[in-house]
Design goal:
By secondary structure, the protein is α/β, with parallel strands linked by helices. The protein folds into 2 domains: 3-95 and 281-298, Rossmann fold (3-Layer(aba) Sandwich), CATH 3.40.50.720; 100-272, Rossmann fold, CATH 3.40.50.720. It has 11 helices and 12 strands. The protein has helices at residues 13-20, 35-41, 58-63, 82-87, 100-116, 118-126, 152-163, 187-193, 211-216, 234-243, 281-298; strands at residues 3-7, 25-29, 47-50, 69-72, 91-94, 144-148, 167-171, 182-184, 196-199, 221-225, 246-251, 270-272. The chain has a 7-stranded parallel sheet with strand order 8-7-6-9-10-11-12, with helices on both faces. Strands 2-1-3-4-5 form a 5-stranded parallel sheet. Helix 1 (13-20) links the parallel strand 1 and strand 2 (25-29). Helix 1 (13-20) runs parallel beside helix 11 (281-298) and helix 5 (100-116) packs across helix 7.
Length: 303
């Protein structure tokens, strides 16, 4: 019996080749499919693999009459209608640990870039200007970093933040046991005390940071979001930047991707990247081979 696997997004080549070597596995890679195209071809597959671009919606799942497994090579499951899959008895899996280091390093890079003005300074230099005094920044050392969401990525960010000499506050709905020198506090305490705030939470029905939360923060706070679009109210953030309540923001994720409204991205004190948190060669390789492992274990001895 052949297990047909659809890889619907860009995927590590070595991992894909590993899947192809498994007896009984037939691997087809087609990227850039919209919902209608997926609905048309999904009946032919037992497994579908996605990253962040392709959405596995209820209509796709309902059309997947042979579908047994949906795997996301990445963190979170917001690109998959998990409830629809559950109703049809289709297993859903992801690779939450594979790209934690990649995301954490990206967050620290965004943070440094925001406080040292790397983006505008680079643009200025490319315009053949020498505006040294204009881009005086601040150190991370001795500042207080608030981490909202203290899971795998939050812990990795804390480790790196401590190495920079940051004082770390963390908030999570479930307190986390750790030996790190991190003070776990309420959300209100974190908002009031942090000089920099970074979010590491799944997509939420309502923003975690909105107008009310920005008003509770220190004036001149720096916001970093490499978690999910929508966990920060973008309109409220833009207003907070304009008022000076927020000094700078570094954003890797947006409520709509690709963005259609660039008013926030165009703000001079916003650093923006196109959802690159997990986009490292090492992270994608780990995620790819974790997907291979998940699929092999699911179909072991069935082909």
């Amino acid at each position: 019996m052949t297990t047909r696997i659809l890889i619907a997004d860009h995927f590590d080549e070595e991992a894909a080749n590993e899947l192809r070597t498994v007896p009984g596995f037939e691997v087809i890679q087609k990227t850039g499919l919209n919902e209608a195209e997926l609905v048309k071809i999904i009946p032919d597959f037992e497994v579908v693999v996605v990253r962040s671009a392709t959405k596995i919606t209820r209509p796709v799942i309902e059309a997947g009459q042979n579908l047994k497994l949906i795997v996301r090579a990445g963190i979170g499951l917001d690109t998959i209608d998990v409830q629809a899959a559950k109703e049809k008895g289709i297993a859903v899996a992801n690779t939450p640990a594979a790209t934690s280091i990649s995301v954490a390093e990206h967050v620290l890079g965004l943070m440094i870039g925001a406080v040292r003005h790397h983006g505008p300074a680079n643009l200025s230099m490319k315009q053949h200007k020498w505006e040294k005094k204009l881009f005086t920044g601040t150190e991370l050392y001795g500042k207080t970093l608030g981490i909202i969401g203290f899971g795998r990525i939050g812990l990795e960010v804390a480790r790196r933040g401590l190495a920079f000499g940051l004082n770390i506050l963390a908030y999570d709905v479930i307190p986390i046991k750790t030996d790190l020198a991190v003070k776990q506090v309420s959300l209100d305490e974190l908002l009031a005390q942090a000089d920099l705030i970074t979010l590491h939470v799944p997509k939420t029905p309502q923003p975690i940071l909105g107008e009310k939360e920005f008003q509770k923060m220190k004036k001149g706070v720096v916001i970093v979001n490499a978690a999910r679009g929508g966990v920060v109210d973008e309109k409220a953030l833009l207003e907070a930047l304009n008022s000076g309540q927020v000094k700078a923001a570094a954003l890797d994720v947006f409520s709509q991707e690709p963005p259609q409204d660039f008013s926030l991205i165009d703000h001079p004190r916003v650093t923006a990247t196109p959802h690159l948190g997990a986009a490292s060669e090492e992270g994608q390789k780990r995620a790819g081979f974790e997907v291979v492992k998940i699929i092999k274990e699911k179909f072991a001895g069935k082909n």
